[in-house]
Amino acid sequence: MKPAKMPLEELMSSGHLACQGCGATQAMRFALKVLGPKTVLAIPACCWSVIDGSFPNSCIDLPIYHTAFETAAVVASGLKAGLEMRGDTESTVMAWAGDGGTFDIGLQALSGAAERNEDIIYVCYDNEAYMNTGIQRSSSTPVGAWTTTTPVTNFKKRPKKNMVEIMAAHSIPYIATASTAYPEDFMRKMQIAKETRGTKYIQILAPCPTGWKAPPELSVSLARRAVTSKIYPILEITRNGQKLKVWKDFKPTPVRDYLLAQGRFRHLKDAEIKTIEREVEDNWQRLLAKEKMLESIPGFGE
Amino acid sequence: MKKVIMGNHAVSYGVRASEAKVISAYPITPQTHVVELLSEMCANGEIDAKFIKVESEHSAMAACVGAAAAGSRTFTATSSQGLLLMHEMLHWAVGARLPIVLANINRAVGPPWSIWTDQNDSLSQRDVGWLQIYCESNQETQDTIPQAFKVAEELQMPVMIVMDAFFLSHTFEIVDILEAQEVRKFLPPYHPDIKIDINDPHSFGNLASPEHYMELRYMIQEAMEKAVGLIKKVDGEFQKQFGRGYGLIHPYRCADAEIILVTSGTVASTARAVIDEMRDEGVKIGALKVRVFRPFPFEEIFEVLSRAKKVAVIDRNISFGGHGIFFQEIKSALYGRTDVPILGYIAGLGGRDITPGVIRQIAEQAITDKNPHRYINWIGVKT
C-alpha cells in the first residue's frame, strides 16, 4: 500500500465533536484540502451540525452557515447569489448534507437548485441512516439493514433510493460517487467540482461505525469493501447526465463479508444474504450495461 | 411621477426603489403580480438584482436567508398557504437576525380553498418575531417597502408588509412612484458589519447551549421594543423627504369620540367614511387604524383608546377558542389601566365584503350593547 498524496493544508482542526471512526469527518477534511480558503459552507441539520462544535467554537476555519434540515441546496443558492451581488464572484459555495437531508427531506430543494443549475457544489456524506438522531432508517438505508426504526424483526425490506439516477435526470454538469477509503479519488472529484460551473453533486460513502454497529477501526476498511463488493459503485456522470464512467479496476470481494462485518446486517439469514448478493450483482450489471449503452450513442462515447 | 397601478405593482415599485439585490419567490394567487413585475424589471435591467425562481415558498424564504446572510438586500412576497409553508424559515430569519422584507397579501387559509382576503395567514405568524405592518392604500404599500428595509437593516430584524387580497392587491389607485435615486438618500445601500465573508470566517447558527440561547432571545425582544420608536423615526424621515407619513397607528376623529372603532387594512378607509356619516348625524364616534401590529404599539393605542367610553374592535381574523386577534391585543393594551368596555366583532372572513353598511351595523350594535363583556360578535354569519 502506498501513502495517499494530499495537500498539507488543513482547514479543519482537531477538537471536533465526531464519534471515533466517523467517515463524515474524514470526508470533510479531504474536501476542504481541495476547496481551500475561498469556500463558504451551508450545513443543514445533520451530524455535522454537531461535529462543527458548539457556540462559540467551530472546528472549521471557513464561514459556515448552519440552516434548517431541508434547505442546504437552496440556502447555498442564496449564499451564492448574495455573495455575487456583493461583488464576491470567486468563492466556492458548498452545501454539505447527510443522506437524510439529501435523499429525504432536502430532496425538493436540491431538485430545485439542480434544475436551475445553481453554481454550487452539493456533497452528500452518505452514512445510510439518520445517525445524528440515533440511527433511524432513511431512504438511503440499504435493504436488509437494522436501524432503530427497522428492528431486526422487521428489517428494511426496500432497496436504497438511487439518488445518483435522480440527479442524473437533472442534466447537471457533474455527478460523482466516492468513498472515504479512496481519498485521492474523492479529492480529484472535488477538484473537478471546484473548476466546473453549475450544479455539482458528489455523494461520498461515509461509514458510521456507531450506527453500523462496527468497530471504529473498520471505518476505512468497510468504506473500501462497500466498493469492492460492488454494493457502492464509484462512478462519474458528465456531459449533463449523458456520459457514465464506472470504476472497475479493483479485485472483487464478497458481499457476504461486507455485510457480516457489521452488526446492522448480522441478523440476516443465509437466504436473505443470497438475495442481497443477487441484487447487488444485478444492479452492477445494469450499471455496466448503461455505461456501454451510453457509449454506443453516436457522438457521446468518446 | 404618478401612475395608476394595482396594489401588487405598488409593492414591486417599492422594491425597485429600494434596490433589493436578491429576490426569491414562488407564485401564489393573489400575490403573483408582485413577482411577475419584479422578474420583468430584473430581466430588462430596471433593477440590478438576482431573481431566484425557487420550487416552493419554503425555499423562497430559505434563499432569502442565504442571500441576506451573505450581506445582500433581499425581498420575497407570498400569501396564505405560501406564508404558512415558510413558517419554519420565518423563525430562522429572526433567530439569524436577517433584515429580509416580505410582502404578504392576506388570503384566507384552506380548506375550503379560498383566494379572498382575511388575516389569519399573517396573524398566525404573530409569534415568530417578524415586524408586521398592515397597509390600507397602494401609496402606503409602496412607501412602506423602503421604510421597512430601513427599519429592518438598522434593527437586523425581518419585516412583513401586509395588505388585503383583491381589495388592495388588485385595486388600481394613483401612486406617486418612488425612484431609486431619490430613495437612496433615505435608504443607503446595505453594507452590514456581520455577514458571511471569506476574509472573516465565522460559524453562524451552530449549537448554542442553554448558557447562551436565552440571551439571544432577550436581544430579539430588545430589538422589537426599540422598533416602536424606530418605525416612528423612520416614518418621520420619510415624511420629511417625500411628504407622506403613516405612523404606528392612525386615529381619525378620536379626540372627543365616545366610541372608537379599531380597524386595520382596507377596512380603515371604509370606516373613516362611516365615521364622517355618523358624525354628521351627531354621533361622537372615531376610528383607530392599527398600522403596526408587531411590535404592538401598546402606549400609543392606550393614549387614544383610554379617552373613549367604549371600544369596538373589528377583526377580519379569529383565534379559534379565543377571540379576534386584534381584539386580544387591544384588550391587553388597556388591561388594568382603564375600565373602558371593549367589544369584539368578527367580520369579513374569506373575503366577505366589509361594506359601510357592515361597519355602521357594528357601530350601532356597539353603542346600544349594554353588556361590556361581549367579546365575540359574529357579523353577518348565516346560522
Characterization of the model:
The complex is a heterodimer of chains A (302) and B (383). Chain A has an 8-stranded mixed β-sheet, with helices on both faces. In chain A, 52% of the residues are buried. Chain A has one domain (23-296): Thiamin diphosphate (ThDP)-binding fold, Pyr/PP domains (Rossmann fold). Chain A has 11 helices and 8 strands. The mean pLDDT of chain A is 96. In chain A, strand 1 (39-43), helix 2 (47-51) and strand 2 (64-66) form a beta-alpha-beta unit. Helices cover 38% and strands 14% of the residues of chain A. With 302 residues, chain A is of the alpha/beta class. In chain A, helix 1 (23-35) packs across helix 7 (183-195) and helix 3 (72-85) crosses helix 5. The longest helix of chain A is centred in the C-terminal third of the chain and has 27 residues, at 270-296. Chain A is globular and about 60 Å long. With 383 residues, chain B is an alpha/beta fold. Chain B has 2 domains: 2-242, 3-Layer(aba) Sandwich (Rossmann fold), CATH 3.40.50.970; 250-378, Rossmann fold. In chain B, the strands form 3 sheets. Chain B has a 7-stranded mixed β-sheet, with helices on both faces. In chain B, strand 14 (310-315), helix 11 (325-334) and strand 15 (342-346) form a beta-alpha-beta unit. The N and C termini of chain B lie far apart (50 Å). The interface between A and B is large, with 44 and 42 residues. Strand 2 of chain A pairs parallel with strand 9 (203-204) of chain B.
Write a concise keyword list for the protein shown above.
heterodimer; A: 302 residues; alpha/beta; B: 383 residues; Rossmann fold; 12 helices; 16 strands
Summarize the structure.
The complex is a heterodimer of chains A (302) and B (383). With 302 residues, chain A is α/β, with parallel strands linked by helices.
Q: Report on the biggest sheet of chain B.
A: 7 strands, mixed
Largest sheet of chain A: 8 strands, mixed
Low-confidence stretches of chain B: none
Measured between the Cα atoms of the first and last residue of chain B, the distance is: 50 Å
Assign the CATH topology of chain A. Answer: Rossmann fold
* Helix percentage of chain B: 40-55%
Large-scale geometry of chain B: globular
**Helicity of chain A, in percent?**
25-40%
Apparent shape of chain A: globular
CATH topology type of the largest domain in chain B: Rossmann fold
Strand content of chain A: 5-15%
Strand order of the largest sheet of chain A: 2-1-3-4-6-5-7-8
Q: Which band does the percent of strand residues of chain B land in?
A: 15-25%
Count, helices of chain A = 11
Any idea what the radius of gyration of chain B is?
A: 21 Å
Reported CATH architecture of chain A: 3-Layer(aba) Sandwich
Number of strands of chain A: 8
